[in-house]
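Extended Data, panel c. Modelled sequence:
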Amino acid sequence: MAQDENELKMDTGKAGSAKNPLLTVLVLLNTIMMGAIAYFQYQSFQRLSVQESVSDIARATKTSDVPNEEDFLPGEAREVEGFTVPLEPFTANLAQGDGPRRFVRLNLVLNFAKDSKQDEINARKPQIRDTVIRVLNSKRAEDLLLSEGKEFLKQELRTAINTFMTNGNVLDIYYVSFQIN
């Protein structure tokens, strides 16, 4: 009987060592996969670090034709040139980033120059709305959450709208409401 127990112990020892190569292969495969994931995350980080941020672009495209907030003293009254045209509220999907689908609800008022024609503005309202929606669809929520991103959006919208206006142009854009969900 003692001899049977010794044989049984030998058999289980052999069976246990047969599983070790499979375990070794699985650990090796897991290590290789973790290394590949780390490599791709590093490459993604490198690409994003080279990409210009919204604040860099906004600083580079500051225009001097429209006075900035910094040009005025606090509490100083200033006259608004031209006239304002309120637009209907916008609800637009934002560009897909990491995470759930996001959208923006936005209400704008456009400040047009004095020489702008009201007839042309009314005729171009669908084109203006399309331009605003198209620009909003290209933005990510991360870009619009910062104040620099909102200012850059104003400049981009003003430039895009002024490209097709023939009589007059947009001097400034005012946000009446701005909500990102």
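The chain has two domains: 1-51, 54-180. This feature is highlighted in the accompanying rendering.
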